Each structure stands twice: as C-alpha cells, then as structure tokens.
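In keeping with the milestone schedule agreed at the kick-off meeting, the structural modelling team has produced records for the first pair of proteins. Each record is given below as a sequence line and a structure-token line. The laboratory manager (R.T.) confirmed that both were archived under the project's standard naming scheme.
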Amino acid sequence: MEKFLSDYDRGLLMSGQPDDPRFNPYPALAAGLLFAPGSGITDAAGGMADPSQAGRMLPSMMSNIRGGEYMDAGLQGLGLLGDAFMAAGTVVPPLIPVGAAMKAPRAAKVAGRMGEDVSGTLLMQQPKKRPQIRQMPQAEQDLYEAAAAFQLPRDVGEGLLLPQRAYEYGARTAEVGNQGLLVDPGFQNLGRDLPIIGDNGTVVRDLKTLAESPDLDIQSLIGRTAKLMPGDMTMAGKEITHVQGVKLKNPVRMRGGKDFPAEELSRELGLVWASDPNIITRYVKAAKKNPGLVGVYTAMGGRGGDFSHHVADVLVDMTKQADWLPKKTIKEFDEAVRNTPTTKKKDGKNVTTYPLKDFPGILSNDIETYMYEAGKGAARKAIADIMEKGSFRDAGFPDVTAVRMIVSEPSMSSRVNDPSDMLAPTGARFVEFDPKNVMNSGQGNIPEFHKTYRQGIGGTDLGGLLTPVPRNIMFPDFYAGRRAAGKDMPSDRRSAEISNVLQEITQPVADDVSVFQDYFNRGLLGRGF
C-alpha cells in the first residue's frame, strides 16, 4: 500500500503535463472561464460550457433549482455576487480578487469530472433510451456520468485516474441519495418511473437468522486466486407475508443472494453457496485445481432473481388471488408462456424449440409443482418476463417491477443499469470453497436449504468488503482479455456469468480495491479529496 501511495503522489505531480497522453486542454480552459468577469451571469443563464463534456452546457440556476440541485444553484448565486464584486473592482481594484474568490467554489465543483469524455461509453447509452417525457433528473444523469468513467481504459495499479473516478462516483451516489431518487438497476424497461414501495401494505419479517458478517480487508488475500461468483440480488433471512396489500397464502422465505452463507441453516451445514448441480460441479472442479480458491460474490442484473423462487412464488400467489382478471386475459397469458421460444446451436445451426408447451396455466393447482420440476427453470423466468409487459400489467396482473424491488437486498439494488455489468457491486461476500463438501437440498436427511438451487458447496465464510467495488476493479484480467480479443462490451455480462472467471489477487489489484473504497467513501461522506 505504501508503494501505491508513493506512485499516487508521483502521479499527481506529473498530471496535466502536455506530454501526458491523457492531457486534454479543453476541460481546463472551460473550467478557467468560470473565473472570467461576467461568467457568473452566463453560468446562471445556462450558457456556460461543461468542462466534462465538449459541446454541452451546464444547467442554468433555474434548472438546478427545479432539479433539486440546490448546492449548485447556491454556488451559481455566489458566482453572480462575484461578478458584482469584480465589476465594482474597476473602481475599487482590491475587490477584483474578492470577486474571483467567490467564483472558486463553483469552479471547483464543476471541475470535479473534467478531463474524461464518457459520452461514447456503453453506460451512457442508457439515459438516451429514456422516453422524452421522463428525462433523468440531473443528479441521476451525473451519477451515470461518474459511473461511466469506469468503462474508460486504465491500467491496474495506476495512481491518478482511480482516485478521481472513485471520489466522483461516491459524491454522485450521495447526491442521488440525498434527493431520495430511485435508481433502477434493471428491474424494468425504461418506459416508466419505478413504483414507490414504501408503506403500502408490504410486510417483510426479519427472521433473525443471519450471522454478523465480518469486514474483510482485501490486503489479507494477496496471493490467493479469486473466482467470480455471480448471484442474484435477493434478500436472505427474511420472510415476505404481504405484498402491496395482498396477504400471501404461502409466505415466501428469502434465502439470498449474497447472504446465503450467513443463514443459520447454511452455517449448520457448512455451506457457502448454492446453485444448479452443473454450476456447483464447475465450482468443485475449479476449487480442486486451485486449492484455497476464494469465491467472490458479484451482483447480477435487476432481473437476475426471476429464475429463483423469490420472484416466481410471489407472482403466482398474487395472481391466484386476482379474481378481477378476465378469463380471456388469463388464457392469453398462459398461451404466451407456452409459446416462449428457446434457441440453441445444433450442428452449427440455430434450432428453436418451445419447451414450455406443457405449461399447466398460471391458475392451475399444479403450477407450484411444475415450476420446480427438473429443467423448468425457464418457466419461472417466462412468467416474470411476460407478466411485466404493459398489456398484462394494465389488465391487473401483479406489478413485476415492484416485486423485483421488494425481494431485492437494498444495499445491492440502487445502482446504475449497466448492460455490461462492469459496474456490478462486487465483494459483498467472500468465501473459501471446500470441494469435498457437496450436498443436495432436501435429499435424505438433509433439510431444504434453498428451494430453487438444489445443490450446495461447503467452505468458510470470510465476510465481505464494507464497500463493494465495481466488478472490473476486482477482476481486471477478465475485461482486459476480452478487450484484447476484440469482444464487444455488451456481451461481457453473459460471458462473465457462464465462464470460469479467475483472478490472482496481486498487490496492484488489492491496492485498487482499497483505494476505490477509500475515495468512494470520501466522496460519499463529503470529505475532502
């Protein structure tokens, strides 16, 4: 860590030099204009160039007020006062530096993101998909821009870009939270606002079955091999009894998610992860090949929980109680599920089949059994995918987006919707695998430890990072390899979820994790850079 800090100090001294390939004169020039006479008036009117993105103007004072950006508006007001002092300085010269000093806070805040053009990143395509009738609030737009910087190239262990990016990401996250904005990680399409859950008849009971998770210092794992462990964002240690005023006939037991290893039953059985047998087989193989292998939880997208019982059981239970739904609409829904296609490669050709043709119907007495038969996981996902369509939602089916939000762990779910999942929170759980301890849920004298994922692997729960980091900070080799191979960024998410992604935790990798946590928290808490 000391070596990193010395490298960082050298980076600061070297930054901004014309022979630095990262040097871009536009941001500094644009920020410098904020000190010019009359710039306060121009800024307040919305005519000041944005140092962080060429061709775009900073929001006006009124836009900031309407958008809840009261700090920016206040600093613009201070800039107006600075103009007045500088104008008076033509008569009383000592007032000129006083006026310039009044402009400094606004210039410093605006310059926070200068120097990195994120307009071409994959993440910044997301705001463009929003319908014109529901543009992003400015604070959410700023969060996306700060997050998008992590999709720009950087070398592992460099000491200049990461602190700046992490600090800005933390500061923008804080601003979104301060305004009470809901940021959608992909729970729905972008055609409407997220529903407000709040106190609307939803009851989630805390069963007090989770062990306290120790805070992990990544520096303690230097030299170890880490394996990416994708998991959904669902909660653990909870039971959902009511959803939006509907009392569930069969309360849904939540088992996670990142907190599965902390569950009381998981600890009694010595289990650290659960999944389908074919996935656990891969984990066992990797653990045997890499003794002491460390699994690192990384959050999947907003729809990642659709495959699990957490979402499906709630939707089926609520639908069976929705006696206002027309029989015709129910029939249309059932047919849509039955006609869900699956396309796979066979002999080099795409072959499409319809494996859910035998779907018994959403109101069938057999639906609960059908959804958990071998090979029927696609039915659970199809129920959610089809039910969230506007035509079925408007007809009175349960609000799938709301259910996804309710079953998700809050600490994992308020984040940007990144198609590549490079920004996916990673490190909230670390485990060490024991490939000799594998068991099947509910078989023989083994209790059911997970309704959906029927096989578990044992090991040791190591705890988690107090502040999770972007996936590409923890597993940089995977992304570097894909970029070198010319792979498109949108395909990163699927590749990471189905591949055996390994990463040696070197000193530079560990330092990057530590520095991200430090500077993200500085920005989050409003401490100085």
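The second protein of the pair:
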Amino acid sequence: MKPMSRRFGSHPGLMGIAAVLGLAMAAAAIAAGPDDSSKAKGKKEVAPPRLSYIDEMLLDSWKTAKIKPSPRTEDAEFLRRAYLDLLGRIPNVQEATAFLDMKDSGKRAKLVDYLLASPDFPKNFGNEWTIILVGRKPQGRDLDKGALSSWLRKQISADRPWNEMAYELITAKGSNKENGAVNFPMAHMEDGAVNLTSLTTRVFLGQQIQCTQCHDHPSNNWKQSDFWSINAFFKGMRAERVMKTDSVGAEVYDHTELSDQPSNAYSRYEKRNAIVGIAFPTYLDGTKISQDADIDRREALGKFITEKDRKQLARAFVNRTWGRLFGRGFVHPVDDFGDHNKPSHPELLDRIVDEFIVAKFDIKWLYRTLMNTQAYQLTSAMIKENEKDEMLFSHQALKPMTPEQLFDSLITATAAHKADRGDSDKIRNQWLGQFTVTFANDEEGENSNFQGTIPQALMMMNGELMTKATGGQGGSFLHDTLQKGRANRKPALFIVNRLYLASLSRYPNAKELANASAFLGTNPDSIGVIEDLFWSLLNCNEFVLNH
C-alpha cells in the first residue's frame, strides 16, 4: 500500500487535484445534469425513441402528480448505465470510444442488443442470481457456488425461459456438482428447511411470508399455517455426502446428492397460545395435494408456482428486474408483494407482466423492452418539477455499485490484474470477501452496495487493489497510456481523454480538459502525476455511482 503521505502530499496534493478537476463536487454535478459543451460544439440533438405504452402510462402518472420528467440522458451516461446493468462493469476505452463516436440515431437500441448477445451478460446474470439465491458469505457447508453460477450462465446462454429455470431450481435433484441448481435448495435445508420456505416464496413469488412463521400476518390474510403448509412441501428432502479416494488414497469429500424420499410427514409448529399445530402440504390459495407417500412434494410445489400461480411468478420477476434497472420496483421492497404493500403503478405492472407471459417468460425480451423506453433513458439529474419524486420514475435513480460491479469496473478501467500477474479469480474473491466483511451491517447481514461509509472510502482510497490499479506498473492501463502518450503529437490531450474514458466513460468537458492538461503540464512524462490524476477520477462519486 502506498503511504498516506504519498497519496495526500505529492504534487499539489490529491485533495487539491480533486478540487482543481472539480471532482469534489461530482455528486452535485451529477444532480445538476449533463454538461452542455456538446451543444456548444454544434452537435445535433438526437430525437428520442417513439413512446411505448410504458412511457405513455408513466406520462399519465406524471401529469396526475403534476410533475415533469428529467431530460433525456447524454450518450455517455446511457452507455455506462447499460454496461453496468447488463454486464456488471463499465465499458473499456475502446468500447466507450466506439459508441460515443458512432453517428447512428438508433445506436442505443443496437447497444442493448449487442450487450444482451455478449457472453458477459449470462456471466453477470449468473453472478447476480447466485447472490440472490445463496448469498455472498461462505456458507460453512458443502455448497458449490461455482456450479450454481455456471448452471445459471448456461440457462441464459441457451435462452431458457424464467418459468422453466424457476421450476428446476425449486425441484433440483442429484449431484450439486453436476447439476448446479441443486445448490439452491441444498443451501437452505437446515432447521427443517425454514430458510428454504422463506426464500422460495420471496424469490419466486415476491412474497415475504416468513413473518407468519410465528404468528398471523398483521396486514393481510396470510396465516401462520400458510408458512408451515409451504414448509411441508420440503419434508422428505435428503442430502447425502459422497466421498472419493484422492491421489494418496485418502477418503475426501466429492459432492452432495440431493433426493426426495417418499414421505407422508407434516410440519409441526407452536401457535401463540402454546398449542402445537400441524400442517400438510397446502399451497397459499388453499389447494392441497394427495397425502400419499409416492407424491414428489417439491415437484408439486414447483408446478403450483410456475403453472397455477404463473402470473405471480411473472409479477415477481418483472418487478425485481424493473427495480434492478430503475433503482426501485413498482412494489418496494421488490420481494414484498401483498395487500399491505400496493404497487405504485398497478396497471402498468400488470400490462408488462401480461406481455412477459405472452413472450414466454423471455428474460432478454424483458430487458430489451424496459431499456428501450424513454423512462430508462432519462438522466438521473433532477429538475425543480420532480425533485421530490421518489417513486414515479420521472428521473433515473442514483444506484450505488455492488461490490462485484465496483471490482470489475476497477479492473476494466485499470487492467490492474495484468500488472499483478496473479490468479485473477483468487484476487477477485479475496477482495470481494474483504469488501463484504468490511461492509457488513449491524445485524450481520450483507451490505451489497457501496454506500460511501468511512471504511468503504478508505478501502477505495488506500486499499491494495487501488494501489495496484493506479501504480503504473508494466502491463497496466496507466503504463500503456503513458507509453502511447509519449508517442502522440498532443500527449496531454491524449492522456486526459484516455483517463476520463477509462474511468467515467466519457470525454472531459472543456473546463476539465483545460484543468487536467495544465496539471499534467507540470511534468507530462511523470507517471506519478498521471497516477494521482487517475486516482482522483477513480475515487469520485461519478465513478462509484451507476447514474
């Protein structure tokens, strides 16, 4: 790690650099809206896409609330947002330059199609849903997260519809190494599958019935018996550890086999009056299954969720996806549907859900539909007419990066992994583990976003990854930029443009370019000067926020 005196004392000082570049006010700049220097250069305004039914219904809600939408976002903001939302990282310099310099009025829709076809989209989807299904923290059991991520990735690559994926996750059997979906139910079997009961309804139905584990729900019709009736579907699950002989003849763990044994068992629970209740497998709408032992209970539950209750399955997925893209679901939190928590736009949600079902639960169709709306392409900068809006989507939300997005974006911007020459996956896992532990909340849950706390800021400013990212070692982005800059006729312009494109996915505006060029002019060949400039860009709010 570089000493603190190096970070805050060299050249005019890092905090001074931030002030020179105007980065100390990055959050305010984002809120104030895009710089209008592109208009001053004579660039033509591109006509927004045609209004979709989504935009029309949102427009009606804005008129009713007497608010106005923010302006359409600049290309650079849209580019960065789309990459983060679909690939989990910012674009690299080449990708940013290609899009920003493209003269095509339909380039945004083409970019969405390009990103959805990228192999990085299934990879990012797999990483995100692995966290949703089993969490970030080490489970302390024989869980194979890699196999689960790989399974999810293969499903998206093969364009499997969400209802089929959900059914396989709920009913998964066999080896957790060969069938990665097995790791979802296997991860939550302890304590009589109480956690599996809760998570299955939250993830696939968007309903938090876990509070009815101990009592009837205070705000809707869910009863304590409903929770335990769902729990009874998981009776009969069996997990068996399978051993193998290693190269030295020792017996070592190989994988876990998950199966469903014939069972006529029921769930037992204690009511608030201390009377013991029993519950047989019964779905939330009261539908019961046969009590015969030859019934596969999890398969019955999977069919209830994906066939009988397919509209709620679609509602939960559409709402979660909308929340991912817009920063907030129609129902918020995204997994808390119920009479106690009505959607902000019920008719619009139902319209999208109906079309998602008609599209046969096509995940890429849903992303494409939502990202091609005018609403998704609004700037995050608020205006006077919508500055109090928090739930009507009249401006894009400022979304803190997840730890995974932050790490992958730092690697994309800096090529620090190439300079380190180490095991990139090992480095990633170590950093993410440190990130999750450092940022755990008071309830020992997982803090999934960069919230700007003091430990987070210190890790960003002076952590080992940042030191490597801005160190300028051979193989790094900075080293390559300096070498190419020295060969360029306008080295300062070349270097400043590259640093801004790499970190913020945009060209600097006129003021930023002038200030940074003047700063580099103090010693244009010094890697230390460029390191400090890059460090300042990577630590500003514009970098750590998805806006």
